[in-house]
Amino acid sequence: MNYKNLLVEMGNNVAIVTVNRPEKLNALNNETLNELYDAFLSIEHNAEIHAVIITGSGEKAFVAGADISELNQLSPLAAKDFAEKGQKIFSFIEHLSKPVIAAVNGFALGGGCELSLACHIRLASENAKFGQPEINLGIIPGYGGTQRLTRLINFSKALEYILTADFIDANTALQLGLVNHVYPLTELMTKAKELAEKIAAKPAQAVRLALKAMQSVKELPQSQGEFFEASLFALTTGTEDFKEGTSAFLQKRKPDFTHK
Ligand code: COA
């Protein structure tokens, strides 16, 4: 996959997507958003890929937001289309059938923070800074920030960050449960790859269904969520890896998963 503003590498059943506009702190212009959608669509349909990492190019930024030079001229109707387009792409990432790990290596602001929030797991470097500074531009978050930040951290904290535009440093993000781990910048990608490869080695169908069951928490009442869980649990018993995993346990040997 060759893109102007993205780098995509694949190996060990893991795809690494790097937003690559370091001179603009990896800000998401329209072209980059299109490329992100295209890359994640290909990854979704690539059976060899079991986990994904997304990060930013350079040592300063994950993604510093939507590209403000494109925002500046928007009319209300164009702005609605702009927000809905980003929301659809981030929702596609959130509903991907493979886990997506955000390796947040610097500023994750505005659309960059929202991109990280759409991922399933966030790892941060010590210099990472999260924030929704849209209010300083006279706008509000438009790529899902008001919804996902509120669900990930508590409502009044999310409200405070969105109304003040204050940045959240890596250690505060860890305390808030916004990130799973904080690492020195030089170790971030190694740790992200270790985690992605660890998950990629697990039975891919079970990983996919666990992800689906857990995503339903945000959308279903518990009784329906449990029904959904039981149905997906039942589906796992139709996989070859279920037979292999349980047989290997009973035969006291290591399982040899085929991801089928
Ligand atoms: N959109 C477009 N360009 C952006 C950008 C964005 N969201 N964020 C950074 N850039 C560009 C800057 O314009 C600058 O380009 P230039 O060299 O051609 O002038 C370049 O990236 C470097 O940014 P700069 O502001 O010089 O770096 P800094 O270290 O002084 O500040 C930030 C870093 C992240 C604090 C600052 O760039 C910033 O506030 N960015 C906007 C964040 C934001 O509001 N995001 C939400 C958008 S909805």
Topology:
Layout: E1 6-11, E2 14-19, H1 30-44, E3 51-56, E4 61-63, H2 68-71, H3 76-94, E5 100-104, E6 107-109, H4 111-118, E7 121-125, E8 129-131, H5 145-152, H6 155-164, E9 168-169, H7 170-176, E10 181-183, H8 185-200, H9 204-215, H10 222-236, H11 240-250
Parallel strand pairs: 2-3, 3-5, 4-6, 5-7, 6-8, 7-10
Antiparallel strand pairs: 1-2, 8-9
Helix pairs in contact: 1-3, 3-4, 4-5, 5-6, 9-10
The protein binds coenzyme A.
Residues 24-25, 27, 64-69, 107, 109-111, 133-134, 137 line the site of coenzyme A.
Description of the molecule:
The protein has 260 residues and is α/β, with parallel strands linked by helices. The chain folds into two domains: 6-200, 2-enoyl-CoA Hydratase, Chain A, domain 1 (Alpha-Beta Complex); 204-250. 48% of the residues lie in helices and 16% in strands. The chain has helices at residues 30-44, 68-71, 76-94, 111-118, 145-152, 155-164, 170-176, 185-200, 204-215, 222-236, 240-250; strands spanning 6-11, 14-19, 51-56, 61-63, 100-104, 107-109, 121-125, 129-131, 168-169, 181-183. A six-stranded mixed β-sheet has the order 1-2-3-5-7-10, sandwiched between helices. Strands 4-6-8-9 form a four-stranded mixed β-sheet. It starts with 5 loop residues before the first strand and ends in a 10-residue tail after the last helix. The structure holds coenzyme A. Residues 24-25, 27, 64-69, 107, 109-111, 133-134, 137 line the site of coenzyme A.
